[in-house]
């Protein structure tokens, strides 16, 4: 059993050699090689092709995510705190927050600017702190809990200030005294609310409630407009198509005009549309650097930047045309 | 075609060395992708080759018109390589005109009702800009507020905006959404040596009638904690502005 192959990339070619040199008829009949790895470009393809593959993915969807969290809990764990009512409500809020931050990723940039790898350890540590703070203080320190979750635990992964703002806003809905109200709703639809668990068997009642939630969450639970599901579908389709595209053969069937002719045609069309480079000195004369008009400086700098780009594009269009014509 | 003889000579000389790069360029043109050598010399863009090229021609026209016709009444913000520099220039103009220290001057944002064709003159102070798109919301001229987008409309144009500098501008305490402006839809960028992001342009304040919340945040320039007013409704919806879309 070799675990975490993705962490020893340099050794992978050797592993490949070892696997290739294995001779089935000389080996013990009970011999099996188990390998575990994150998705990795460096994992040898030949081993993948010759092995039986099992993949484990985190559950997709808000409900599956919540269920995953609650399947790991039981009545004993839910009653651990000396304020079980508060603890249970806040823990459910935290689980919901956890599911939301993970599920927001499927909306692409609309959800998070950067797709962070939030995982169960973020949840576990926040839950442990929640239990500690709820049990040790007479009054629940909501502000502290918010900061710990949003800035320290989950925020430790967040590198973008705009995402930090999103995270702050999201946690404020769950770590709030309002979550103790039985009619406190997590979103406008009213499907998701601060559930009141059964006192004797809270675990079972939570699981039942989670089971009753819709299989596919609407964008509204994330505070998004319905249009977000279109964005989400586009993001998914883009990802699928880009994979399909990499599997496309490079050679295209010759039909009608050839590849070279097409490139020549396109390059020529572009060459005609490009204007000459800017006369920077002329522009600087017309729009001189002026204490009271900074826009002149902006114009000169912009035209310099565009000149550089023009030069690159023209140069390569021309080179391609010449080469293809020569051939 | 406008190629100079010198460029031609250089192209011919470069042929041998550049063949691998040119091969890539040919492939890119054929696949409707922007060649790598172009993207590295260009502004960030997500457009495939043909819209990318149209966009380039349009940007060049913006600069050419500026050169030929003088400073435009309304600036096409998407036409700038480096819009942050343009915004700083507006502040600088204002500060110098009234002899204010530039660090005491900040933008206020006025949404205009007029269409682009109706504006012929520059404002007294600041600049008019157009060309921004909103994702996740739209602007309502009548209510003067952000509202939910129309079904199936993913992006909507922002109105013409007056970037109006003010001295010692107090931070607003209600009625606005602090909206990030990016160049392209991906919303991620890298910091360049000037301290500017390659993608994030600036924060703008868009009037909106949703409930206000307050949030403390670090201001990167001064490293001071400032209490901003904001609207969680739009933050959760991921509302942002963009200079350019994907097509």
Task: Tell me what the structure shows.
The complex is a heterodimer of chains A (327) and B (247). Chain A is built from 13 helices and no strands. Chain A is mainly alpha-helical. Chain A is extended. Chain A starts with 11 loop residues before the first helix and ends with a helix. The model of chain A has no long low-confidence stretch (mean pLDDT 89). Chain B is an alpha+beta fold and 247 residues long. Chain B is 30% helix and 26% strand. Chain B has five helices and 13 strands. In chain B, the strands form four sheets. In chain B, strands 7-4-13-9-10 form a five-stranded mixed β-sheet. In chain B, strands 1-3-8-2 form a four-stranded mixed β-sheet. Chain B has a two-stranded antiparallel sheet with strand order 5-6. At the A-B interface, helix 8, helix 10, helix 11 and helix 13 of A face helix 1, helix 2, helix 3, helix 4 and strand 11 of B.
Order of helices and strands of chain A: HHHHHHHHHHHHH
The number of helical runs of chain B is 5
Binned, the helix content of chain A reads 40-55%
Number of helices, counting only DSSP H or I runs of 4 residues or more of chain A: 13
* Beta-strand residue percentage of chain B: 25-35%
Please indicate the percent range of residues of chain A in DSSP E strands (runs of 2 or more): under 5%
Feature tags:
heterodimer, A: 327 residues, mainly alpha, extended, B: alpha+beta, 30% helix, 26% strand
List the helices and strands and how they pair.
The complex is a heterodimer of chains A (327) and B (247).
Chain A: H1 12-21, H2 45-50, H3 62-71, H4 75-78, H5 84-103, H6 120-136, H7 142-153, H8 161-172, H9 202-212, H10 227-247, H11 259-273, H12 280-286, H13 294-326
Helix pairs in contact in A: 3-5, 3-9, 5-6, 6-7, 7-8, 11-13
Chain B: H1 5-30, H2 36-41, H3 49-69, E1 74-76, H4 83-98, E2 105-111, E3 127-130, E4 133-135, E5 138-140, E6 145-147, E7 155-157, E8 161-167, E9 176-182, E10 200-207, E11 213-219, E12 224-230, H5 232-236, E13 240-242
Parallel strand pairs in B: 1-3, 9-13
Antiparallel strand pairs in B: 2-8, 3-8, 4-7, 4-13, 5-6, 9-10, 11-12
């Amino acid at each position: 059993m070799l675990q975490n192959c993705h962490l020893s990339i340099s050794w992978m070619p050797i592993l490949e050699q070892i696997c290739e040199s294995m001779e089935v008829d000389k080996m013990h009949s009970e011999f099996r090689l188990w390998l575990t790895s994150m998705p990795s470009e460096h994992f040898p393809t030949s081993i993948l092709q010759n092995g039986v593959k099992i993949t484990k993915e985190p559950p997709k969807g808000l409900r599956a995510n919540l269920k995953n969290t609650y399947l790991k809990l039981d009545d004993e764990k839910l009653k651990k705190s000396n304020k079980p009512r508060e603890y249970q409500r806040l823990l459910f809020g935290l689980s919901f927050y956890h599911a939301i931050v993970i599920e927001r990723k499927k909306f692409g940039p609309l959800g998070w600017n950067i797709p962070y790898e939030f995982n169960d350890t973020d949840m576990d540590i926040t839950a442990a702190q929640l239990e500690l703070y709820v049990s040790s203080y007479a009054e629940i320190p909501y502000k502290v809990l918010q900061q710990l979750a949003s800035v320290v635990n989950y925020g430790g992964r967040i590198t973008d200030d705009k995402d930090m703002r999103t995270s702050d806003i999201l946690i404020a809905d769950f770590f709030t005294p309002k979550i103790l109200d039985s009619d406190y709703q997590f979103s406008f639809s009213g499907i998701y609310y601060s559930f009141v668990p059964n006192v004797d068997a809270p675990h079972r009642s939570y699981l039942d409630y989670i089971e009753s939630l819709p299989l596919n969450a609407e964008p509204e639970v994330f505070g998004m407009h319905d249009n977000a599901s279109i964005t989400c579908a586009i993001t998914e389709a883009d990802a699928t198509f880009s994979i399909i595209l990499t599997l496309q053969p490079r050679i295209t069937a010759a039909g009608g005009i050839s590849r070279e002719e097409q490139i020549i045609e396109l390059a020529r069309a572009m060459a005609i549309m490009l204007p000459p480079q800017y006369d920077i000195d002329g522009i600087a004369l017309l729009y001189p650097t002026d204490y009271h008009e900074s826009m002149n400086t902006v114009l000169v700098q912009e035209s310099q930047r565009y000149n550089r780009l023009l030069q690159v594009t023209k140069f390569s269009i021309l080179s391609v045309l010449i080469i293809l014509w020569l051939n | 075609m406008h190629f100079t003889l010198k460029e031609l000579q250089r192209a011919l000389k470069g042929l041998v060395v550049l063949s691998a790069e040119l091969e890539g360029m040919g492939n890119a043109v054929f696949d409707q992708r922007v060649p790598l050598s172009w993207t590295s010399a260009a502004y960030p863009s997500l457009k495939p080759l043909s819209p990318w090229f149209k966009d380039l021609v349009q940007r060049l026209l913006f600069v050419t018109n500026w050169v030929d016709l003088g400073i435009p009444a309304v600036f096409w913000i998407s036409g700038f390589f480096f819009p942050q520099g343009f915004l700083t220039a507006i502040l600088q103009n204002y500060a110098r005109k009234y002899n204010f220290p530039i660090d005491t001057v900040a933008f206020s944002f006025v949404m205009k009702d007029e269409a682009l064709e109706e504006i012929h003159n520059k404002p007294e102070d600041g600049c008019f800009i157009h060309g921004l798109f909103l994702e996740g919301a739209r602007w309502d001229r009548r209510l003067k507020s952000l509202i939910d987008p129309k079904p199936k409309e993913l992006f909507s144009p922002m109105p013409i905006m007056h970037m109006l500098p003010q001295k010692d501008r107090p931070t607003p305490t209600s009625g606005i959404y602090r909206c990030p402006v990016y160049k392209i839809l991906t919303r991620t960028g890298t910091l360049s040596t000037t301290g500017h992001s390659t993608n994030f342009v600036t924060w703008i304040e868009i009037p909106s009638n949703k409930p206000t919340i307050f949030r403390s945040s670090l201001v990167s320039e001064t490293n001071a904690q400032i209490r901003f007013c904001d609207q969680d409704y739009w933050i959760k919806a991921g509302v942002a502005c963009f200079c350019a879309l994907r097509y």
